[in-house]
Amino acid sequence: MAVSAGPMVVSTLSLFVVPIAEDTGWSRTAVTAAFTSMALGQAVGTPVVGHLLDRFAFRWVVAPSWALYCACLALVTAVPRALPLFYGLFFLTGVFAGGTMIPFVKATLSWFDNRRGAAVGVTAAFAALGAATTPLLVSALLTAHGWRVTYRWLALVAFVVSLTAVFALVRVRAERALRGRLVKVVVADDRVVSLEPPGLDVRESLRDKHFWMIAVNLCATGVAVVGIQVSIVPMMLDQGVAPGRAASLLTVFGLASLLGRVVGGALLDRFHAPVVCAVVVLCPAVGVFLLHGPFASAAAGTALVGVAFGVEVDLLPFFVSRYLGMRRFGGLLGILQAAVMLTSAFGPPAVNLGRDVLGGYDAVLPWLAGLLVVCAALVLRLGPYRYPAVAGFDRVAARDELVEALRPNDSTPATRKSE
């Protein structure tokens, strides 16, 4: 998660805007549109990954996704001064980046129900940790070597860390596969036992009001928060802040996101999720009004915006599991994640276009704050959970893991694939 597309590409894009624009002669709006191209790619790739996760074993989906994502990110550095090719490579990076996050979220949720919010929060915190530390590395590399070498280093780090985690550290609970394809039922003690969890299928979910309320709320939130995040460094540079000091705000942003994900995840297990979501969404609505003050005020505003960054990483999978269930979790999360990424992609160019048309960022920010207030009001209408936590699930999961670890290989129950 710490080297996924969010921390490695999205969180550092604002640092690359000016160097790429100066090297190529493109406008800032044209450069930030690369994020739109990447998000379009993720909108294509993420539903496919989610669909595959509901049918194939974890590693069969994740390992190829990571390898191709890192390769495409490295190829961005070879692009000549041609915008279509630049956008095309970012699009492909986004397509394969679709497999860098959802599989790990699904693996985490397979082990937790009673403490699901905290588990997702801790998992997502690694992404926030990457968002907090990667800008420091990127800033140093940009100063020393330029943007092309910097992207090559990011691709190399992501490749080594990700494949180590995939093959050595991560496993999905109760996953049974035959030649890579998931087994839906097992035969144990002469009984046929279904391995499918409860929940709605994709068609049922598309007819459910909760699906659309979740989609509209988090899509609109993503437009505002990502638009602000990518524009923070250019905004500070326009105010005369030194580049190094402006870049340090991204570390503040990442640390706030880290804290918000851990604390927010824990709160999801204690309070109703829509209430937690409303509070999180209102934080950047307040923070945007602090960005044009002194540097300390801008840092505080950046922190408040950072609390909501990556809100879909925590809240989206939690909402899906509680309102739509886990039966087709991968496919549903993929569709919703794609929608969030697709709409969020228009945040950075919209904010920068507003700056060009209205004459400054200060005229755009109040509109974003108003949008966030509407989102906070909408999420409160979700109502009670359809699939609440099952008492004692986490203890049973831990016990089953211990039993499975101690089971001799020759006594494993026979399995058969469902039709």
Task: Give an account of the 3D structure.
The protein is globular. The longest helix is centred in the N-terminal third of the chain and has 30 residues, at 116-145. α10 runs antiparallel to α13 and α10 (209-238) packs antiparallel against α14 (311-324). It contains 18 helices and 5 strands. It has one domain: MFS general substrate transporter like domains (Growth Hormone, Chain: A, Up-down Bundle). The protein starts with a helix and ends with a strand. The chain is mainly α and 419 residues long. A 3-stranded antiparallel beta sheet has the order 4-3-5, with no helix packed on it. Strands 1-2 form a two-stranded antiparallel ribbon. The relative contact order is 0.16.
Brief description of this entry?
The chain is mainly α and 419 residues long. It has 18 helices and 5 strands.
Strand and helix layout:
Elements lengths: L4 H6 L2 H12 L3 H26 L4 H18 L7 H15 L4 H8 L6 H30 L1 H22 L8 E2 L2 E2 L2 E4 L2 E4 L7 H5 L2 H30 L4 H26 L4 H15 L7 H14 L2 H14 L4 H16 L2 H12 L6 H15 L13 H14 L8 E2 L3
Helix pairs in contact: 2-3, 2-10, 3-5, 3-15, 3-16, 4-5, 4-8, 6-7, 7-8, 7-11, 7-14, 10-11, 10-13, 10-14, 10-15, 10-16, 10-17, 11-12, 11-13, 11-14, 12-13, 12-14, 12-17, 14-15
